[in-house]
Amino acid sequence: MLKAKITCFADEISQDLEEQLDVLQQEGISHIELRNVWGKNVLALDDGELAAIRQTLDQRGFQVSSIASPIGKYPVADDFGPQLQSIQRAIQAAHALGTPYIRIFSYHPPENANLDTSRDEVLRRMKQLTEIAEQNNVVLILENDNDLYGTTDDRCLEILQHCASDSLRMAFDPGNFVKNDIKPMQDAYPRLKAYTDYIHIKDATFEPKQFVPAGAGDGEIDALLLTLKERGYDGFLSVEPHLQHYMPHASNPKRVVTAVRALKQLLERANYQWE
């Protein structure tokens, strides 16, 4: 039976790993996207901390879906050396925690500059990161995000085509496309579907520009899920709530549970099984 896998950016629940897992477990989720824990970014965790996380996850029946690194969320004008160190640490974390996936971004161009002036350097960096991934048996997943070279579907496609590797795939984020006035299913997905191996469940409205629970915005997530089901997609649906403005007075766990249950409701409506 076809089943998608629900995972979650659980640092939006708490910085405490046990609290993160408690909430996910209550919702029947057994995967976690690791970004921050104990007040540290995943790439700042030492070997002992990674081993402790792996032990806790194994004991509680959890698996890591992706290392949610900040690689590429830096100015393209910055020295590339620290980023090369970061990708090596991300690879070590991925191997230690048993996931092939590492989330990355596509660099901030200079403010008010023509994006074309950054094109060659962005593509050079992305190609080098991809080659390192190939050598280390990991898969980089490119998130479309705000104020980056790869904010739009056409520039994400340009990066993916330039690198032309199974070690660089797309982490398709409908909410971030909406934030940039792009219709996810009408415009972005048809271009990027051949490269899309990972999904961020994040919805948003065109006006006002605000993140909302799945199905409450303009992210066309219901249509996305139907398309994924027809495609036979059994990969990850990663809930990234970002509901601080939508639910300003709610607790962090409440926001995450709201986001998770909104996705479950859409999956049920689509008769799309999950685990």
Automatic annotation (TrEMBL):
<dbReference type="InterPro" id="IPR036237">
    <property type="entry name" value="Xyl_isomerase-like_sf"/>
</dbReference>
<protein>
    <submittedName>
        <fullName>TIM barrel protein</fullName>
    </submittedName>
</protein>
<dbReference type="InterPro" id="IPR013022">
    <property type="entry name" value="Xyl_isomerase-like_TIM-brl"/>
</dbReference>
<feature type="domain" description="Xylose isomerase-like TIM barrel">
    <location>
        <begin position="22"/>
        <end position="265"/>
    </location>
</feature>
<dbReference type="InterPro" id="IPR050312">
    <property type="entry name" value="IolE/XylAMocC-like"/>
</dbReference>
<dbReference type="Pfam" id="PF01261">
    <property type="entry name" value="AP_endonuc_2"/>
</dbReference>
